[in-house]
Design goal:
Oligomer: single chain
Helix content: 40-55%
Organism: Comamonas aquatica DA1877
Pfam families: HTH_1, LysR_substrate
Number of helices: 12
CATH class of the largest domain: Alpha Beta
GO molecular function: DNA binding; DNA-binding transcription factor activity
Low-confidence stretches: 296-306
Order of helices and strands: HHHEEHEHHEHEEEHEHEHEHEEH
GO cellular component, one term: cytosol
CATH architecture of the largest domain: 3-Layer(aba) Sandwich
Mean pLDDT: 89
Shape: rod-shaped
Number of strands: 12
Largest sheet: 8 strands, mixed
Strand content: 15-25%
Domain HTH lysR-type: 3-60
Radius of gyration: 32 Å
């Protein structure tokens, strides 16, 4: 049995208007066509829906049962159409996103909160990865887009400016380096370091800087998160390097002090990478536009890329 939604809508209109002519006018079809559709519906269902007489039509008990069923079915069909339209307009859907810890701890919480407040039916699946793995995930289409440190990653990827951040050095309060507000790596390398996890961009710049200065990098311990790094530094296990705005989250609660790094690599650019903007699902394009657009109330300090 294939029930025609148009016939069901007409049937509901007849039940509500209590007259075929008025229902036909409401549904914009001829009265004769409406009568024919009702007869075909009764034939399909093999049940009489209306008693017909010179005084008009009278619904049968079966008609009242069908009215509830028809309203339910038509409501579900309208819901399907509405949700599919929302997918097409980017208002509903699922976005696969990867980002490095710098973007996640400094910028994304407030930005995602704003986007999801505007689009509550959108689901964002966010994973933290190091920059090389982010580029690979986007290139292999296991993520719609990613946010990573600017650099050379190969592959056919498109890059868009996202944000700038600044790497700073943190030391436990009372550490010899805290007698000044700015340090260079030559001074810092005299002390033990708390490093990030293997493969992190920060470990990479520390290793390269030490090699260029022909000095050893004394990694006393390595951790996998900024909060762990700050806790280890506060415990006196060494000094550490992390983004300034990430460090600011812990300065008020831990006995640590932030020092500016007099190194050219301390100023970094974060970029958004994707395969092709035009091929993104509409909801992913909407999120990309939201993330790369300079917003009022952006965090102070390392600001937006001009």
């Amino acid at each position: 049995m294939r029930l025609d939604p148009t016939s069901l809508r007409l049937f509901v209109a007849v039940m509500e208007e209590q007259a075929i002519a008025r229902a036909a006018a409401r549904e914009h079809i001829a009265t004769s066509a409406a009568s024919r559709r009702l007869a075909e519906l009764e034939n399909q269902l093999k049940v009489r829906l209306f008693e017909r007489s010179n005084r008009g039509i009278a619904p049968t008990p079966a008609a009242y049962t069908l009215l509830d069923l028809a309203r339910s079915v038509l409501g579900e069909m309208d819901g399907i159409a509405r949700q599919m339209r929302e997918y097409g307009s980017g208002m509903r859907g699922h976005v696969r996103m990867v980002a490095n810890i710098s973007a996640i701890t400094q910028f994304l919480p407030a930005q995602l909160k704003g986007f999801l407040a505007q689009h509550p039916e959108v689901q964002v699946h966010l994973q933290e990865k190091i920059s090389t793995d982010i580029a690979l995930a986007v290139a292999q289409n296991t993520a719609d887009f990613g946010i990573l440190n600017a650099g050379r990653y190969g592959g056919e990827l498109t890059y868009m400016p996202y944000r700038q951040d600044e790497l700073i050095l943190i030391a436990p309060q009372g550490h010899p380096l805290t007698a000044q507000t700015r340090v260079c790596m030559r001074e810092a390398l005299a002390y033990d370091f708390v490093g990030a996890h293997t493969g992190s961009a920060i470990n990479g710049v520390l290793t390269r800087s030490a090699a260029q200065l022909d000095l050893p990098l004394k990694l006393r311990i390595q951790v996998t998160s900024y909060d762990a790094l700050c806790l280890m530094v506060a415990a006196g296990l060494g000094v550490g390097v992390l983004p300034r705005q990430s460090a600011a989250l812990y300065q008020g609660s831990l006995p640590i002090q932030a020092l500016r790094l007099d190194e050219p690599w301390a100023q970094r650019e974060l970029v958004l990478c994707l395969r092709h903007y035009a091929s993104l699902p509409p909801v992913a394009r909407a999120l990309v536009d939201h993330l790369v657009t300079p917003a009022a109330g952006a965090p102070e300090g390392p600001g937006l890329i001009p």
